[in-house]
């Protein structure tokens, strides 16, 4: 790793979780009531353990969000509203990627293109700069990087190993070789090595196979990943190939990773379209793992797997069926801020 720089793992202590409140000017407009219930449940879960920082597009959105949260008896002492007019609410991908730098922090601000130009993203690409300008990161260094990269596309163990997918990075940078991308990611993110997965995808996924829908690190050299045991399902062959790739990975001292396969939810079909229901899209907070739940019998089985992978943490199920209508889930709408960052 680069001297004095370290990309912390998500399970390390945090100061807050950053989200953006959905409103009628976002893509949630057609099902706003349903998705608001998910956000209320998410903020309720976060504030049991730490602060929730909520971006709000204007004063009316803030007043409405505050009223909804107060009516749900949420601890408003742990809620902070941040004014910023955003295109949409996928803050995992438009939000800050934070490195520890000595006793302080470096906030990385990669270019956000809405997953290769699929949607409008001009305001979202200015999010990190706007938050920095408001002083929300304290005296952390702010580094703008003219390179398309989303937070959902990378996963770190906090000890110098990055996990990502070739499909996503190649789609964003088709002219770059794997060696070139490895060097760039390792340099900017202070990593010793980059592990690439060549397989794995979810139908209904806009992100070109973000790693946070497929495989995630857990403490103690472990990987939690989305499996598919239904041989009749269209995902089976690709997720089986991904599972084989993960099983072949080795830790820095040459050992296999401890593996925790997640169960497969039954297909969720909406207006003839299959939605991307992944249990790998969980969010880690202080003392707990917030898990996307889809109203499926596999929800409890997924919670049991996560309890094994994250011993000592409470597993909290958050209803996310409304979220996957827009092709993302719990981790996608949130970004953690390491302990000590912010004012």
Please explain how this structure is put together.
With 343 residues, this protein is α/β, with parallel strands linked by helices. It has a single domain, classed as 5-stranded Propeller (L-arginine/glycine Amidinotransferase, Chain A), CATH 3.75.10. It has helices at residues 32-46, 59-71, 91-94, 114-117, 127-133, 166-172, 178-189, 236-248, 298-309; strands at 5-6, 14-20, 51-56, 79-83, 97-101, 104-111, 141-148, 154-156, 161-165, 193-197, 215-218, 222-226, 258-262, 269-270, 273-274, 283-285, 288-293, 314-319, 335-338. The strands form six sheets. A four-stranded mixed sheet has the order 1-5-6-7, covered by helices on one side. Strands 4-3-2-19 form a four-stranded mixed sheet. A hairpin with a 4-residue loop joins strand 8 and strand 9 (161-165). The longest helix has 15 residues, at 32-46. The mean pLDDT is 94.
């Amino acid at each position: 790793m680069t001297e004095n720089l370290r990309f912390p793992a998500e399970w390390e202590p945090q100061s807050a979780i950053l989200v953006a409140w959905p409103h009628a000017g976002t893509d949630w407009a057609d099902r706003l009531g349903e998705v608001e219930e998910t956000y209320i449940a998410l903020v309720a879960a976060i504030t049991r353990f730490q602060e929730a920082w909520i971006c709000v597009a204007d004063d009316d959105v803030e007043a409405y969000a505050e009223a909804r949260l107060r009516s749900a008896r949420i601890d408003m002492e742990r809620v902070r509203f941040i004014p910023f007019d955003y295109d949409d609410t996928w803050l995992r991908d438009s939000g800050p990627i934070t490195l520890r730098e000595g006793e302080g922090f470096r906030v990385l601000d990669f270019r956000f293109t809405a997953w290769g130009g699929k949607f409008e993203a001009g305001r979202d690409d200015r999010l990190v700069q706007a938050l920095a300008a408001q002083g929300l990161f304290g005296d952390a260094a702010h580094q703008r990087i003219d390179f398309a990269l989303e937070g959902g596309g990378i996963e770190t163990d906090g000890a110098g190993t990055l996990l990502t997918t070739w499909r996503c990075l190649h789609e964003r940078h088709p002219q770059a070789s794997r060696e070139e991308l490895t060097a760039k990611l390792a340099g900017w993110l202070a990593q010793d090595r980059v592990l690439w997965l060549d397989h794995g995808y979810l139908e209904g996924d806009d992100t070109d196979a973000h790693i946070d829908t497929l495989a995630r690190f857990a403490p103690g050299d472990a990987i939690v990943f989305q499996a598919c045991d239904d041989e009749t399902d269209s995902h089976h062959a690709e997720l089986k190939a991904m599972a084989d790739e993960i099983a072949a990975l080795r830790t820095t001292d040459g050992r296999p990773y401890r593996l925790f396969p997640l169960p497969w939810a039954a297909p969720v079909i909406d207006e003839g379209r299959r939605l991307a229901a992944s249990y790998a899209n969980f969010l880690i907070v202080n003392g707990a793992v917030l898990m996307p739940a889809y109203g499926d019998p596999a929800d409890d089985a997924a919670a049991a797997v996560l309890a094994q992978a994250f011993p000592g943490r409470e597993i909290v199920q958050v209803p996310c069926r409304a979220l996957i209508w827009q092709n993302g889930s719990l981790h996608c709408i949130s970004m953690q801020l390491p302990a000590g960052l912010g004012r």
